[in-house]
Amino acid sequence: MTRYDSLLASVGGTPLVGLPRLSAPFNADGRPQVRIWAKLEDRNPTGSIKDRPALRMIEEAEKSGLLTPGCTILEPTSGNTGISIAMAATLKGYRTVFVMPENTSEERRQLLRMWGAEIVSSPAAGGSNEAVRVAKQIAAEHPDWVMLYQYGNDANALAHEEGTGPEILADLPSITHFVAGLGTTGTLMGVGRFFRKAKAEVRIVAAEPRYGELVYGLRNLDEGFVPELYDADLIDSRFSVGPRDAVRRVRELLELEGIFAGISTGAILHAALGQAAKVAKAGEGADIAFVVADGGWKYLSTGAYEGTIDEAEDRLEGQLWA
Amino acid sequence: MAIEVRIPTILRTYTGGEKAVNADGANLHALIDALDASHPGIKGRLLEDNGDLRRFVNIYINDEDVRFIGSLDAELSDGDQVVILPAVAGGAR
Ligand SMILES: Cc1ncc(COP(=O)(O)O)c(C=O)c1O
Fold first, then answer.
1. Which is an annotated Pfam family here (chain A) (predicted)?
2. Domain assignment of residue A302, yes or no
3. Annotated catalytic residue A6
4. Is A197 an annotated catalytic residue?
5. CATH number for the domain including A120?
6. Which residues of B touch A81 (CB under 8 A)?
7. B89 touching chain A per CB within 8 A
8. Beta carbons of B10 and A217 less than 8 Å apart
9. Is B25 inside a domain boundary?
10. CATH number at residue B9
11. Nearest Cα residue to atom 15 of ligand 1
C-alpha cells in the first residue's frame, strides 16, 4: 500500500534492498551464497529510523494520559529522535524542548528549529551522557513537562519488536544475521526480542560508534552510562567501530551500491561485512540484513564525504558523528 | 608476546599519562594481572571486588566487546589490540 491518511501513518514499511556488489567478494564459485541486505530506514518521513520509536513513544504516552493537548515534550537527543518528535509534535500540537550536546552538526540544529523546537545545549565533554543529565535536571524543574526518555522507554524497543523486526522477517525469511547500531539500544533490543521468539537462530550483532577522547572524558568512572533498555542477552556480539572504518564503509556503500547513508551506517556496514567474511571463511552461506539508520545529508558539514579518509578521520575528531 | 592496551583518559593516572601500554597474557585475566603489576591499582578500577568486570567499563579485543567472547576468559594472541573505554551514551539519538 502506498496511500496513507497522513504523514504519521506512513512511518515504517521501508524497503529491504540487496547489495550484490558488496556481497560479491564473499561468493566464490560453487560456495553457498552470502548475501547482504540493507533496510532503508532513511525512507521514513523525517529521514531516519527514529520516526518509529518517536511516534510509538508519543502514542503510548497519549494512551496512558501522560501526554495531553498543549503539553511540552522534553528530550535529551543529539538529533534524529528530536527531529522525529518535532515533526510528530507539529502535527499533534505539542511544544518541544531538546537537550543536545554542543558538538552536534549544524544541520541537525537547523532542522529542529525549522520544526519549531527549542534547543538547550549541553557540554561537549561527556557527549550524550551530559545531555541526559541536563535533561533530567530540567525535568525536575518543570514537573508538568513530559520527558519520553528514549533510553528507558519500552515503547522505543516495542516499535522495533512490532515493526522493524517483523518487516525484515517477512521480506527475508532466510535471514541469518541482523546488524544495527547501538545508541539507546532500542533497535537492537526490539528486533532482538522479536527474533529470539520468531527465529531464534538469527544472530543479533551490535555496532557501537567509537568516538574521539573528548566524549569519554568523564571525571569519574561511576558517571558511565548504560541505557536502562539494554539487555545483553538479546544480542550475540558487539563491535566498537571507529570513524576511520565508518567513513571507509559509508563511501563504499555509495560507490558500489549508490546508497548515500549517514556515518553511523558505515559503522553498521563494517560490522555486517565482518560477519560476512567470517561466514564465508567457514564455507557457509548467510543472509545478513543491516540497518541504514539515516541518509548522509545531515552530516555533509562534518567533512566526512570529501577528501581522503585521513582527512575525514581528522575532521571527525571531537564530533558526534553517529 | 606483545599486546597493545589502549588506556582511556580517566585511567592514565595509573600509566604516567601514557595513552597505550604493552602487556602480556594468554587471556584477559592474565593481561589485567600483568597490567596491574606494572601499573599498581589499575585492576581495582576495572574489576569489582568479586572479580567481575565493572558495569561502566567496556573492554574490546580487536574491536569486539569481551562480554560476548568469554569476558575475562577471552583469549589473546600476539598482535591483538585491547581497548578499554568507559561506557557512555554515544551519538545521534
Ligand atoms: C543515525 C543513527 N544511527 C544509529 C542509531 C542507534 O539506534 P538506537 O538508538 O535504536 O540504538 C541511531 C539512533 O540512535 C541513529 O540516529
1. PALP
2. yes
3. no
4. no
5. 3.40.50.1100
6. 93
7. yes
8. yes
9. yes
10. 3.10.20.30
11. B92
**What is the Cα Rg of chain A in Å?**
19
Number of separate domains in chain B? 1
Residues A281 and A202 placed together within one structural domain of the fold: yes
Boundary residue ending a domain (A122, A147, A172): A147
Question: Which segments of B1-80 are extended strands (E)?
Answer: 3-6, 20-23, 57-61, 64-65
C-alpha cell at A38: 540493507
* pLDDT tens-digit profile, chain A (322 residues): 789 999 999 999 999 999 999 999 999 878 889 999 999 999 999 999 999 999 999 999 999 999 999 999 999 987 899 999 999 999 999 999 999 988 777 888 899 999 999 999 998 776 778 888 899 999 999 999 999 999 999 999 999 999 999 999 999 999 999 999 999 999 999 999 999 999 999 999 999 999 877 777 777 777 788 999 999 999 999 999 999 999 999 999 999 999 999 999 999 999 999 999 999 999 999 999 999 999 999 889 888 999 899 888 888 877 777 6
Residues A48 and A31: their CA atoms lie apart, in Å, by 36
Residue of B nearest to A263 (CA): B92
**CB proximity list for A51: less than 8 A, separation 6 or greater:** A11, A12, A44, A45, A84, A87
Distance from the alpha carbon of residue B93 to the mean position of ligand 1, in angstroms: 5
Range of the domain at A138: 51-147
